[in-house]
Design a protein that fits this description.
A four-stranded antiparallel sheet has the order 1-2-3-4, with no helix packed on it. It is an alpha+beta fold. A hairpin with a 2-residue loop joins strand 1 and strand 2. The protein has a single domain, classed as Phosphorylase Kinase, domain 1, CATH 3.30.200.20. The longest helix has 16 residues.
């Protein structure tokens, strides 16, 4: 995180790397989707946060990996593009 982002952060803000986590916009089987901000660019992004305790068996892992692979390979204005996985 750069110095400008550190100064911008308050005690109550939640962050993941260079992303400021905002409000929830959706929920799914394995977690939530939240609005976020990529602080170096001020770009709004969607952040999918998976809850590890909900990923129970090998089939769950296969489904998640498949979603990441497919989403990462698509290039369409109507499909959210994956930029980073942590």
């Amino acid at each position: 995180m750069d110095e400008a982002a550190k100064k911008k952060q308050t005690k109550h803000e939640k962050r993941i790397g260079d992303y400021l986590i905002k409000h929830t916009i959706g929920k799914g089987t394995f977690g939530k989707v939240k609005i976020g901000e990529h602080t170096p660019t001020n770009e709004n992004v969607a952040i999918k946060i998976l809850e590890k305790d909900k990923i129970i068996d090998k089939d769950d892992i296969i489904r998640i990996e498949r979603e990441m692979k497919i989403s990462g390979s698509l290039n369409n204005l109507n499909v959210v593009k994956i930029f980073e996985v942590n």
